[in-house]
Write a structure and sequence with these properties.
The mean pLDDT is 95. α1 crosses α12 and α12 crosses α13. Strands 8, 9, 10, 11, 12, 13, 14 and 15 form an eight-stranded mixed sheet that branches. A seven-stranded parallel sheet has the order 3-2-1-4-5-7-6, sandwiched between helices. By secondary structure, the chain is α/β, with parallel strands linked by helices. 35% of the residues lie in helices and 22% in strands. It has two domains: 172 residues, 3-Layer(aba) Sandwich (Rossmann fold); 162 residues, Dihydrodipicolinate Reductase, domain 2, CATH 3.30.360.
């Protein structure tokens, strides 16, 4: 079987992680990555053996790489001529112009959750709508928060047949490497009500009724979700049975805050480092076992989202969906996660 040739447009926080995840897969290869200009990120691409391209086709921009000692294979158009699918990890607001380039080159494309659903008319998470994205021309992998919500809510919906959800997102204010954002010493409510997170879930699972509020807090580590979900009256579930559902759900981790001494997001991320994850990443959604309680038909729980990494394996499954190489999302998830664990020698 020939490998899927994948281009990464934007080799930054998400792009470098997607490139590594693609590189780990037996059925894919990184055909090239882009940078806007010479920078430390180029050193990483060279070290990994990823061919380097410029986000621009202008000769002046391409030549700047050569002037700084980097071998640049060409511009974005040259890269698109080589690939089957491009994963767009470029900064927000570039989606519309990039989409025109991808369509013109007749390659499949995947955008990230920073772009709106309307750009592609189709969105993706592995557990919610893999089949709907099968053989599509392009789609959008939803945001880290929407991905996190889908991981725990979709299996509940599929069991119960209906869900009404209210969620408050306690959002980190910036990624660890971003020093230009705040708040520094404040809690900043998102005054657009509801926040975009709930409606975004409905782009991948419209049957789930969900509203959301959000606040930004001065931390760079993780997001936390405070979730209240109303199940149907005849749900027949218990707190323990819901926990068992999640324990058997791919990419969800259940741990006890008191017994395991992991009661904060700092301790969650320390755990990710302790188990040997590169960059200290946690692809899984972290649920505190002792923060889950079902009272009659109302479920309360907390979960934590590592904003830099939970969407990374979703991009890999999405590539298989667009290319039509795996119709079973669970098989793709198993293949993706096993390859990544072997790549980083994670037990």
């Amino acid at each position: 079987m020939s490998q899927i040739k994948v281009a990464i447009n934007g080799f930054g926080t998400i792009g470098k992680r997607v490139a590594d995840a693609v590189d780990a897969q037996e059925d894919m290869t990184v055909i090239g990555v882009t940078k806007t200009g010479p920078s430390f990120g180029c050193e990483l691409a060279v070290k990994k053996g990823f061919p380097l391209f410029c986000t621009s086709d202008e000769k002046e921009s391409i030549n700047k790489f050569k002037e700084e000692g980097y071998e640049c294979k060409g511009g974005i158009s040259d890269l698109l001529n080589l690939c089957d699918v491009v994963v767009d990890c470029s900064p927000g607001k570039l989606g519309k112009s990039n989409l025109e380039k991808y369509k013109s080159a007749e390659v499949k494309y995947i955008f990230q959750g920073g772009e709106k659903h309307e750009l592609t008319g189709l969105s993706y998470t592995s557990s919610a709508n893999h089949l709907e994205n099968l053989n599509a021309s392009g789609t959008r992998v939803v945001s880290c928060n929407t991905t996190g919500l889908s991981r725990t809510l979709v299996p509940l919906y599929e069991l119960c047949g209906s869900l009404k959800v209210e969620c408050t997102m306690i959002r980190r204010s910036a990624d660890p490497g971003d020093s230009s954002k705040g708040p520094i010493n404040a809690i900043k409510p998102v005054l657009k009500v509801p926040s975009h997170h709930g409606p975004d879930v409905m782009t991948i699972k419209p049957e789930i009724e969900i509203n959301s509020l959000a606040v930004a807090v001065p931390t760079t580590i993780m997001h936390v979700h405070s979730i209240v979900a109303d199940l149907p009256e005849d749900h027949g579930l218990s707190t323990d049975s819901i926990l068992n559902i999640w324990k058997n759900t791919p990419r969800v981790i259940i741990m006890n805050g008191v017994k395991d001494k992991i009661s904060t997001t700092a301790e969650v991320m320390e755990m990710a480092r302790d188990i040997g994850r590169k960059w200290g990443d946690l692809h899984e959604i972290f649920v505190w076992e002792d923060g889950v309680k079902l009272v009659n038909n109302r479920l309360y729980y907390f979960q934590a989202i590592h904003q830099e990494s939970d969407v990374i394996p979703e991009n890999i499954d999405c590539i298989r969906a667009l290319m039509g190489t795996e119709s079973d999302w669970k098989k793709s998830v198993k293949k993706t996660d096993l390859a990544i664990s072997k790549y980083y020698n994670i037990d």
